[in-house]
Amino acid sequence: LRTFVALAETESFTTAGERLGATQSAVSVRLKKLEDRLGRRLFDRTPRSVAPTCFGEGFLSEARRILAVHDDVLARATATAPTRRLSLGVSEHATGNRLSGVLRSLRDLMPGLSLSVTLGLSEDLVADWEAGRHDAVVVRRLGRAAYPQASGRQLFPDDLVWCAAPDLVRRDGEPLPLAVISRPCRLMETAVEAMETAGLPWRLAFVSRDLVAVQAAVEAGLGIGCVGRASVPAGAVLLGPEDGLPPLPESEIVLLADGRDRALAPAFDLIADTFAHAAGEPRWQRRA
């Protein structure tokens, strides 16, 4: 039918072949098959011209209608679902080994998903979420602090702890060396406030914007870290009151999500479940 329409519109085997990406002989073969099937001639052909027969002229409109219906049905049958977009913010303290599982689960749940993930500080991520720049954020909540727009969905408790390498050297009378994330990280402020409240001398032994760098510094014995239990580096030991360190506030990892787009609700549930189930066992030990 496409060959017939192209030939009727161009009245040239060569031009019709160029339009269809076929040779002149292929156009002739296709036309012959269609005429044999219909049992009618569609074109009057001379060495110099090609013109539709009376039957061919009447059949042209039918052929176009059939092709239009075919193309419309095919387009609707093969059309992909509209792309769903999700912007997710995640605190570095909440990632650990969980993020890959979350991404894999989202891929399986929503194959056409266009996903944007931002890692950052909880305070910055919450501000971006409240401003509408993220659909959901996974962040830390300290103590009884509440976020203005929602209480959030708890994913797992992640109390703050002091940790250090087993071979960290601490000399009596010297300020305690701290390895912390630089301001405006709330954990650094919490660690300093705890030291000041307890009247303990301290110094900044290592500062970085990245949690992974602070974890490395703790493992290397450069200083004492103040992190969530889930972020204690492998091989580090926990320190507490018996080691002369002050108590730290309770903490949890929560999910804040925009509930206006109902289509994203399954994705939010999946994110929450994956983070909660992947919390895993701690890799630290108590100092002997």
Q: Descriptors for this entry?
A:
single chain, 288 residues, alpha/beta, 6-stranded mixed sheet, 5-stranded mixed sheet, 24% strand, rod-shaped
Q: Would you summarize the structure shown here?
A:
This protein is an alpha/beta fold and 288 residues long.
Which stretches are poorly predicted, pLDDT < 50 over at least 5 residues?
281-288
Work out the strand percent.
15-25%
Give the overall pLDDT as a whole number.
85
Give the overall form.
rod-shaped
- In percent, how helical is the residue content? 40-55%
The structure class reads: alpha/beta
Strand tally is 13
Number of helices: 10
User: Termini separation (Å)?
Assistant: 85 Å
State the major sheet: 6 strands, mixed
Instruction: Evaluate the radius of gyration.
Output: 34 Å
H/E element order: HHHEEHEHHEHEEEEHEHEEEHE
Strand order of the largest sheet: 9-8-10-7-11-13
